[in-house]
Design goal:
single chain; 420 residues; alpha/beta; seven-stranded mixed beta sheet; five-stranded parallel beta sheet; 11 helices; 22 strands; 24% strand; binds flavin-adenine dinucleotide
């Protein structure tokens, strides 16, 4: 009660704080945009404000490796103040409301902010709670249930694999916007247990109707799954988790199936933050409704979005963020400072690297309409050792050493600013 009084008094008395550019979210997208805006000299850092409630920035891609026993959780996180460009303003209270008509943002403590340009980069929320009983089992250290989508549950998966002595393993996937990520932990678990000669029965339950949305990669992964004796069940959605028992539902017929398990990996359903829809910025699913090629909001010319929270109809990955960032910045500068129309340059590029073992990776790269867009076609006709070396060693280096300095251009390599 005392807190609430404090909040409303603060809201009443505090003056709005203005920034030329407001960025909601200091995850991969928010960090990359702020770093490139500063590096390219478009804004002095003090004119940019990032809203991010978490003290630590997470390289979520690394959580796959945590679950796979290939890296420690603390290697995937760094304090926000160490990665955010120097002198960029940071507000550590979550945004609860935007008024795009008045160019204002309100944070949970009632503070009001105004902006000239707004970039929404608030990612997605992982909705474990929508699966009945899932959180109870995930939070029970004795229950053999984990998930690479949160670092603590990824640590649990690693421990589960190390201690597993045989039985039935289930991997569940809801409808997902990146099908590569869940496959990683299936193959890595298989590899580690095979190396120990543990007797296993692997079952993958996917809500989607194919192993991977792009036929070429679906075929390659399907063959690998077959070779490794993994059983795939399509169009099945996990709806309930109990002690050593799960309930799935067929996404079409709604018929329910139960199964026992000795090991369960859950991919959580994902959804955008509620403030997006509540502020009138969302599409019918609540994602920030931006033009698929310019990244500009369909109604508000000074609102932009990229990354997982955006409506961009492509697989949601950090690789996609790297391709989206320079286009968003170019269009923001063109429309605001040069009074020119935005350029429709983003074609949906994304990439999903899939560990098929702890020595090889299949690098899937594509763009809108399921078109392949491969950088190294010779190495992408199957899983490859070279792609593994890039994924395991080079990408984390590029993220922590180049991306946070605004120097990483994704597959364009190290970026040298060439102007708008
Ligand atoms: C296990 C796993 C493995 C992955 N593997 C790969 C991979 O191999 N390759 C790849 O390219 N991608 C991979 N990804 C995907 C990649 O991590 C995401 O696509 C990327 O992080 C998206 O960046 P983002 O900034 O949009 O979202 P995030 O990085 O999630 O950042 C969003 C930020 O917004 C903040 N936020 C949320 N709500 C608010 C609010 N109300 N106010 C203020 N701030 C808010 C959050 O705290 C968060 O820090 C993986 C993801 C996971 C979970």
């Amino acid at each position: 009660m005392r807190n609430l009084n404090h909040v409303s008094l603060y809201a009443f008395t505090a003056r709005a704080i203005h920034s030329q550019v407001a960025i909601i979210g200091g995850g991969t997208a928010g960090l990359n945009v702020s770093a490139q805006l500063v590096r390219d000299g478009h804004y002095i850092p003090q004119q940019i404000r990032v809203f991010e409630p978490y003290k630590m920035h997470a390289y979520q891609t690394g959580w796959t490796l945590v679950g796979g026993g290939m890296c420690k959780a603390d290697q995937t996180m760094k304090p926000m103040e160490k990665v955010l460009p120097k002198n960029v303003c940071l507000s550590d209270c979550p945004v609860v409301k935007i008024d795009p008509e008045q160019n204002t943002i309100v944070t949970m403590d009632g503070q009001k902010y105004t902006y000239d340009q707004l970039i929404v980069a608030s990612g997605v929320q992982r909705d474990y709670a929508s699966i009945k009983g899932a959180l109870e089992q995930l939070n029970n250290p004795e229950a053999p249930v984990g998930s690479i989508y949160y670092y603590r549950y990824a640590q649990k998966i690693d421990k589960m694999i190390r201690e597993f002595e045989g039985g039935k393993l289930i991997f569940s996937e809801p409808p997902t916007k990146c099908e590569g990520i869940p496959s990683n932990i299936v193959f890595l678990t298989h590899e580690r247990l095979s190396a120990r000669n543990v007797k296993c029965d692997f079952h993958v339950y996917k809500a989607n109707d194919s192993i991977f949305g792009i036929p070429k990669y679906s075929e390659i992964l399907g063959e690998l799954a077959h070779e490794k004796g993994l059983h795939c069940h399509l169009k099945k959605r996990l709806i309930e988790v109990q002690d050593h028992k799960v309930i799935f539902e067929d996404v079409e017929t709604k018929q329910q199936y139960t199964s026992d398990y000795d090991f369960l990996h859950i991919v959580p359903p994902q959804k955008p933050a509620a403030f997006i829809a509540e502020s009138g910025l969302g599409d019918s699913d609540g994602y920030v409704n931006v033009h698929p090629n310019t990244l500009q909001h369909v109604r508000y010319a000074n609102v932009w979005a990229l990354g997982d929270c955006s409506s961009l109809p492509t697989s949601k990955t950090a690789a996609a963020v790297m391709a989206q960032t320079p286009i968003l910045i170019k269009n923001l500068i063109r429309t605001w400072k040069m009074k020119l129309p935005p350029l429709p340059e983003y074609e949906g590029y994304t990439s999903c690297p899939v560990y098929t073992s702890n020595k090889k990776v299949l690098l899937a790269e594509f763009k809108y309409n399921k078109q392949l867009d491969e950088t190294f076609p010779v190495f992408q006709s199957s899983d490859s050792k070279l792609m593994y070396l890039m994924k395991k060693h080079f990408f984390p280096f590029a993220y922590w050493q180049l991306m946070v300095r605004g120097l990483w251009g994704g597959r364009d390599g190290i970026r040298l600013f060439k102007g708008v």
